[in-house]
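<goal> How does this chain fold?
<body> The protein record starts here
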Amino acid sequence: MKPTLVVLAAGMGSRYGGLKQIDPVGPNGEIILDYSIYDAIHSGFDKICFIIRKDIEKDFREVVSSHWENKIQVEYAFQQLDKLPAPFKVPEGRVKPWGTGHAIMCAADKVHEPFAAINADDFYGRSGYAQLGKVLAENTNPNRHFMVGFPLKNTLSEFGSVSRGICRKDQNDLLMEVIERTKIEKLGNDGRAVFTDDDGSKTELTGNEIASMNFWGFMPSLFNSLGELFEEFLSKRGQEMKSEFYIPAAVFSMIQSGKAEVKVLESADSWFGVTYREDKPRVQEDIKALIAKGVYPEKIY
């Protein structure tokens, strides 16, 4: 069974100052997501499920679907604030989405096969898709999932702090822990970084730590586990205005309870993304360099 690509594209882009999911970065108006789709198709994926918000549906379909619907099967799922299990309800005044774990849950009716999950606005490179395409097609253990990690130093921005899930794995490359670090900044140009904790204390990082960039490979059994964990989350934090159900935290909970194991795959490619608007020119230059090397054609659709 060929895997599906699930694209998380419902984010608000608040730090970027606009709808960065559909902001052009390629020489012919391509967006970052176009390169992800191109890589996925060339790595054995035969379906895409976009998870978006209803209010961006028109723009998203025009910019993305018009290029790809004749090349690969396309589905849409919608992350809606009120898409909650009974008896839970959205607290009055909440506008923030419920997070990446909830977003993936919204695709449960559209995805019944192994799938990769990515952020729409992150460039991951061909290596990760090739690895996931292979292991997802071959895996027979419904409780074994996968994560593609990147060296932390390859995931930082020149223009401000970033949030990253820092990972630890065992000798068998199985994920042991994902620690969310919300304020990581570069320290010079040698790869080092510094993490600032909520109390103001600072911890230096080598830059070689494995960072989770929300590049996952899941078996469809994930949906049942997410449903259970989301209800638990809502019972504890469902009345908070800004609480989020993050997929790394959910995966870690599944590992701790023995319900799942996650094999860590490491990408040979450089990750890049647009966290801040000032990141865009560098992304454009990186795309040009990859085209010049022949990794991508001048026109990908």
Summary: The longest helix spans residues 222-237. The radius of gyration is 18 Å. Helices lie at 32-41, 57-68, 100-105, 126-138, 222-237, 247-256, 280-292.
